[in-house]
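Risk register update: the risk that structure generation would not scale has been downgraded. Supporting records follow, first protein first.
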Amino acid sequence: MIATDIADYLEDNNIGTVGTDIFIDALPDTQDDMIAVYNTGGFDADIDIPVSNPTCEILVRSMSAATAQSTAESIKGLLHQKMNSTLVTGGYYFYYVFIMGDINLIGRDEKQRVEYSINFRTKIRG
């Protein structure tokens, strides 16, 4: 699952800390400023070459719209068009990471925290 590699990559680039304000496949309600990285399935795998095409969603939440938007933009800048590399030591080899659409404003949740969503498609070895 690519969410772990992506969460660790965000941590390595000072976006947050996994388990503190970056979570994998979970959205704890206990804090206001946080990021969740979800595995969201993907597209059909290639039947001739050992590659997979997984997707992920990254949710950014904050009480401050400016903070949430800035964090989402930073994540987009780090991941969009990332090509031919591993994001973390020992992780998957990413042929590419591309944003699907653009950053989406979800709105405010029941606690009035602003939420943005970013979806990415990838191609990975194996």
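Supporting record for the second protein:
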Amino acid sequence: MMNRLTVTLDPRGGETRLLMMEGRDERMRAVLGPATRAHPRAAETLLEGLALWHQQALSVVLCADVGGDMSPLRLEDALGFGVRNVHFEVEVALRQRGRRPRRLSALGNFGDLRQLCLLGVPS
């Protein structure tokens, strides 16, 4: 039996961090360019590709600031809820404003995204 695949996306500042986990095991880490410069369908296409590659739907956690604008990744509907389709289901995880982001060294510490992946997306 395959474990659930969870992808956590954290778009902020000049980069977008991605962490994909299968159960408790990391499968992918990436630091992508800023979400504000990505093609409007880039995040959706990336997630669809990962789902097709692994032949299963993904649980996606999208990090967002409390009271912030909608994500430039376009994975939320007009009310701020995560979108769902046959390839993935997005849950929005709100973080408190005012917390300073950690600087990455190399690919950096993905501990915060790892914790969100381990919590998973509620069914």
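Residues 42-54 form the longest helix (13 residues). On this basis the risk owner (M.S.) recommends closing the item.
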